[in-house]
Specification:
Helix content is 33%, strand content 17%. The protein is of the alpha+beta class. Among the domains are: 213 residues, Valyl/Leucyl/Isoleucyl-tRNA synthetase, editing domain (Isoleucyl-tRNA Synthetase, domain 2, Alpha-Beta Complex); 41 residues, no CATH class; 149 residues, Isoleucyl-tRNA Synthetase, Domain 1; 62 residues, Ubiquitin-like (UB roll), CATH 3.10.20.590. Strands 22, 23, 24, 25, 26 and 27 form a 6-stranded mixed β-sheet that branches. It has a 4-stranded parallel β-sheet with strand order 2-1-20-21, sandwiched between helices. β20, α21 and β21 form a beta-alpha-beta unit. α22 packs across α23. The chain is globular and about 105 Å long.
Length: 955
């Protein structure tokens, strides 16, 4: 400490400093915890409390689940947490019963990888990380109801995650009722004959295994052989997000292959229409809604069957069924089930050399191409590659309208994840088909008349012609003609024709695929599923939940040769034989069973956590219906119910939000909850960015050690580059909240993060700018407390009119900004009021000081609580009423009225805001400047817009 600072603190021992802030903040955090200041009472149950509080309007405010990283928090992480805390504090002060808490999404890959590397149990490192984060978050003064906090790794939490899975497993989606129903009701329909068993079989004659297979086609949770991203080098299946664009694992950079493995899936596609329709009822950013609509990808078209000899039919989905006469070949995804059935033993006579890929037989060509395609990611396969690849299967299919035999290819640009995994190729009118046809010398037929001068011979074209503003040509057979019809008419006519003949029908298709719900991990929720000796899956009864993770010696899945795609995963759980093989009584006597050894994905725990916040100690039900109805039930303006405000990053626009919506709808259908949507209002906060400095090698250097000289940046004598990017440990630009709290205090950090700019946009961090908010708090302190004596200096006298106007304008503006989450402009208004009081000189009026402290309280709660108590109050500032503006002081005393003659300004009048049109007209016409400007001219018309405009038409 310098001599100057020592002298200053000696002269002003009660100045607001970082040391004083630390003392104030620690004391009030302890007091809030001891007094349960932020505890929100439920209407019933073990958390029931003050009836008067419950009678207030409720407000349920949530942050997206944090993951407890070992690196801890940097200053970018708390942005959303501080914002929701400010919003929640204002809501409490405006008469709401506020539920605001925070838990931890604690299953995940980082802890498991740390366990693999060190042998430390994932629970040990995860719990240590959570404790560190709790300390960091507490230091920020966040007003959370800590009784309601939990982590997804708590057995009492994932007991209910497992229970929800059993509900999904034991449910099916009734398309007629448009809702989920218990699987027992479907079985009853099969038994009594009100619903036909697929294949027209007799339900009573089916074996248990056959019945299980039939029900598996209906269950909302089902196991199937699904195409997955298999990474032998890591020994596990990866989510699409874990695979790079060049088809390798993000972690380890191992090759990733497409493989079919037995996996659990969620039938989210059954809810596609409802997931789309209910977006209209949500108060979400339009950009997020659009992303969900695009991800679901609803499209109307037709299913068409192309017969392949005796092997069966290839079914395609197309949105351009009007171009069916132009289909000259077909393409299957390499993984398509029908490929093996249609491949002949030898190439058909007349097969073009370019179709075979240089292989002697179709099976050799197909096998080689499948291996090649398996090494590519979906992103790679859909990219617009210059060279089109594929191979002829050796089979031909019959075009159902022309009767022509068209060759069937496999190519990697067709995916099993969209439509039926097969397309009819109309190369004259589709760009990708056009390029493929050129590469493989396939025929093209124009069936949509071009509107330009290219003619009707595709052989002379440079690209395909696709348009809805055209007429059909070359599209007729003995039974139907589309020639001369527009696209819309042609689509309707051909769809009816196909349906009449049983070879197609109009249908709706979705881009959305069923949710792959398995991971070959250790650190995840165990599936509550066991298999009997016939391989039939059985859900565990509720009495056997939670099924806890067993201890294992090795946390890593078995790895293989990275290039060996023909391998199968071996999960860590599968190696614990005593846990896997069990004898259980599931209601029909003790039997031997084998447990499921995959675990649930890390999305599972965050699909329903909003419900656990409501009733965190309930061991009898998922949630008490009265409690759920109170906090999340539908009400005016919220027809589908849900959380009042949900804040988090836009990166979760699709997966987490879509999955949570699906689970809510399923639980709603089964009567477990009253809210069909989990989150009514969604707000996406921006990102706090930071400058990244790199040396000549491109390696990041410590940002804190970089010096700026003459507009350039230097690190240890070397010039370095600077770009704006993410904040993080790996980029050596992270600033921890602990550092800022130590130097300035938590309230300063809170103010700075809220003042940096609009909450929903990204902004750069600048540690040097933090001091501005620190000085605001110092000026606030000085306006109320004497820095020399520590005594309160306010005056028990009314404020002058100028101060009252400044106060109430600030109250009015801050109140509006708080509701709209414009915290940066709210701080600007508080700063303006505080500066007004500083410049006024003399003691601040007590009522004004108290109102100012209340305005500051949501943003800087520690200093507000301290000043409120020093002002003589004994109850916490947290539950005080937020100030209400007096309209008489908000309205300006006078406004400026412009008087125009022939459109030119001739006078400006200071008038009361409430002046009438007649009064303003008389005043304007009597003004000496107006009279002089008129010069006796005849006034033909006077247009008055009180209080700001008078327009005189004269002459």
């Amino acid at each position: 400490m310098t001599e100057i600072n020592t002298a200053a603190e000696t002269a002003a021992p009660h100045r607001y400093t970082a040391a004083m802030a630390a003392d104030i903040e620690a004391r009030w955090q302890d007091a809030w915890d001891a007094e349960g200041t932020y505890e929100a009472p439920n209407p019933t149950g073990d958390l029931a409390g003050d009836a008067a509080t419950v009678d207030r309007p409720k407000k349920f405010i949530m942050d997206m689940f944090p993951y407890p990283s070992g690196a801890g928090l940097h200053v970018g992480h708390p942005l959303g947490y501080i914002a929701t805390d400010v919003f929640a504090r204002h809501a409490r002060m405006t008469g709401h019963n506020v539920l605001h808490t925070l838990g931890f999404d604690a299953f995940g890959l980082p802890a498991e990888q740390y366990a693999v590397q060190t042998g430390t149990h994932p629970r040990v490192s995860t719990e240590a990380n959570m404790e560190n984060m709790k300390v960091q978050l507490r230091r920020l003064g966040l007003g959370h109801d800590k009784r309601r906090s939990f982590a997804t790794i708590d057995p009492e939490y994932y007991r209910w995650t497992q229970w929800i899975f059993t509900q999904i497993f034991d449910s099916w989606y009734d398309d007629e009722a448009r809702k989920a129903r218990p699987i027992a009701e479907l079985v009853e329909q099969f038994e009594n004959g009100t619903r036909e068993v697929p294949g027209s079989r007799d339900w009573s004659a089916l074996s248990a295994a056959d019945r299980a297979d039939v029900l598996g086609e209906y269950r909302l949770a089902y196991a199937s052989d699904a195409p997955v991203n298999w990474c032998p080098g890591l020994g596990t299946v990866l989510a699409n997000e874990e695979v790079t664009a060049d088809g390798r694992s993000e972690r380890g950079n191992f090759p990733v292959f497409k493989a079919k493995l037995r996996q659990w899936n969620m039938r989210i596609t059954a809810y596609a229409d409802r997931l789309l329709d209910d977006l209209d009822a949500l108060d979400w950013p339009e950009a997020i809604k659009l992303q969900q609509r695009n991800w679901i990808g609803r499209s109307e078209g037709a299913r068409v069957d192309f017969q392949v000899g005796d092997a069966g039919a290839i079914t395609v989905f197309t949105t351009r069924q009007d171009t069916l006469f132009g289909a000259t070949y077909m393409v299957l995804a390499p993984e398509h089930d029908l490929v093996e059935k249609i491949v002949p033993g030898a190439w058909p006579e007349g097969t073009h050399d370019v179709w075979t890929g240089g292989h002697a037989t179709p099976s050799e060509a197909v096998d080689a191409y499948r291996k090649q395609a398996a090494s590519k990611s979906d992103v790679e396969r859909q990219a617009e590659a210059k060279d089109k690849t594929g191979v002829f299967t050796g089979a031909y299919a019959t075009n159902p309208v022309s009767g022509e035999q068209v060759p069937v290819f496999i190519a990697d640009y067709v995916l099993m994840g969209y439509g039926t995994g097969a397309i009819m190729a109309v190369p004259a009118h589709d760009a990708r088909d056009f390029a493929f046809a050129r590469a493989f010398e396939l025929p093209m037929r124009c069936v949509v008349e071009p509107s330009d001068d290219r003619g009707t011979d595709p052989a002379a074209w440079d690209d395909a012609f696709g348009s809805y503003e055209a007429k059909l040509i070359n599209s007729a057979n003995e039974e139907i003609s589309l020639d001369g019809l527009g696209v819309v008419e042609a689509k309707e006519k051909i769809t009816s024709w196909l349906a009449d003949r049983g070879i197609g029908e109009g249908t709706v298709n979705f881009r959305l695929r069923d949710w792959l719900f398995s991971r070959q991990r250790y650190w995840g929720e165990p599936f509550p599923i066991v298999y009997d000796e016939d391989g039939i899956a059985h859900p565990l009864p509720e009495s056997m939940l939670p099924l806890e993770l067993p201890e294992v010696e090795d946390y890593s899945p078995r790895t293989f040769d990275p290039d060996d795609a023909d391998t199968q995963p071996e999960t860590p759980l599968s190696r614990n034989e005593d846990w896997v093989n069990v004898t259980l009584d599931l209601g029909d006597g003790p039997k031997k069973y084998r447990r499921e050894t995959n675990t649930m994905p890390n999305w599972a725990g965050s699909c329903w956590y909003e419900l656990r916040y409501l009733d965190p100690n309930n061991s009898e039900k998922l949630v008490d219906p009265a409690i759920e109805q109170y906090w999340m039930g539908p009400r005016e303006g919220m027809p589908t119910g849900g959380v009042d405000l949900y804040v988090g990053g836009a990166e979760h626009a699709v997966l987490h939000l879509l999955y949570a919506r699906f689970w809510s709808k399923m639980l709603f259908d089964l009567g477990h909850i009253s809210s069909a949507e989990p989150f009514h209002k969604l707000y996406n906060q921006g990102m706090i960015q930071a400058f990244v400095y790199r040396d000549s090698r491109g390696i990041a250097v410590p940002a804190a050690e970089v010096e700026e000289r003459d507009g350039a940046f230097w690190y240890q004598g070397e010039k370095v580059s600077r770009v704006l990017g993410k904040m993080g440990k790996s980029l050596k630009n992270a600033v921890t909240p602990d550092e800022i709290c130590a130097e300035y205090g938590a309230d300063t950090l809170r103010l700075y993060e809220m003042a940096m700019g609009p909450l929903d946009v990204s902004r750069p961090w600048d540690t040097r700018a933090v001091v501005g908010q620190y000085r605001l708090l110092q000026r606030l302190w000085r306006n109320i407390v004497d820095e020399s004596t520590g005594e309160v200096t306010v005056a028990d006298e009314p404020a002058d009119e100028d101060t009252l106007r400044a106060l109430h304008k600030a109250i009015d503006g801050v109140s509006q900004d708080m509701v709209a989450m414009r915290f940066n402009t709210a701080i600007a208004k508080i700063t303006e009021l505080n500066n007004h009081l500083t410049k006024s000189g003399g003691a601040v009026s007590r009522p004004v000081a108290e109102q100012l402290v209340l305005l500051v309280a949501p943003l800087a709660p520690h200093i507000a609580e301290e000043l409120w108590r020093r002002l003589g109050h004994t109850e916490s500032v947290v539950h005080q009423d937020f100030p209400v503006a007096d309209p008489a002081y908000v309205v300006d005393e006078t406004v400026t009225c412009v008087v125009q003659i022939k459109g030119k300004v001739k006078a400006r009048l200071e008038v009361p805001p409430s002046i009438s049109d007649a009064e303003l007209e008389a005043l304007a016409l009597g003004d000496e400047h107006v009279v002089a400007a008129l010069g006796g001219a005849e006034i033909r018309k006077v247009i008055v817009r009180a209080p700001k405009l008078v327009n005189i038409v004269a002459g």
